[in-house]
Specification:
It contains four helices and eight strands, in the order ααβββαβαββββ. The protein is an alpha/beta fold. The strands form two sheets. The chain has a five-stranded mixed sheet, with no helix packed on it. The chain has a three-stranded mixed sheet with strand order 1-3-6, with no helix packed on it.
Length: about 160
């Protein structure tokens, strides 16, 4: 009998010391609060000689002016390790666009057409560029670097809420 009481008390103590889980209502409101805080009209993206953006998801509000700065924090010049930020329209085939971009050397790897929403100039190490554009309608949009061979590693999603 003493053993049963001992195990019951031990179970109560363990249960009392365990983590308390927030209610569904608390979890939802916290998540909503965090996503609202993450919406931004001023965005800074960094890149370097490892062919990566430091952000691959950007959250912005619909209908606002967006200011975006791309920094190339690497050391290599743009002829060997150029980077840009190119925001594509929602219905753009990314791989087809990237193939066309790789052939557009004379226009800093921005192909002719109307498949882009906004883009920075092509940057070499130590350079930066800031652009301003109107946020597109709510949805998901791809952004990428169009320097040849970079788009598969240097891409992400811009989410307009």
């Amino acid at each position: 009998m003493k053993k049963i009481i001992y195990f019951l008390l031990l179970g109560l103590i363990i249960n009392a010391c365990g983590e308390s889980k927030p209610s569904q209502k608390q979890t939802t409101s916290k998540t909503e609060q965090n996503s609202e805080e993450e919406l931004s009209t001023n965005i800074v993206i960094n890149s370097d000689d490892t062919m990566k953006f430091d952000k691959n998801i950007l959250l912005i509000p619909a209908g606002k002016k967006i200011t975006l700065t791309l920094n190339h924090n690497g050391k290599f010049p743009k002829v060997g390790m150029g980077h840009n930020f190119v925001l594509l329209k929602a219905d753009t085939n990314v791989s087809e666009f990237a193939e066309k971009a790789a052939m557009a050397r004379k226009t800093d790897y921005i192909p002719e057409g109307d498949q882009t929403i906004a883009y920075t100039k092509l940057l070499g190490g130590g350079e930066s560029d800031t652009i301003t554009f109107d946020a597109p309608k709510k949805g998901y949009y791809t952004f990428l670097c169009t320097f040849p061979g970079h788009w598969q590693l240097m891409k992400g999603k811009l989410i307009v809420k």
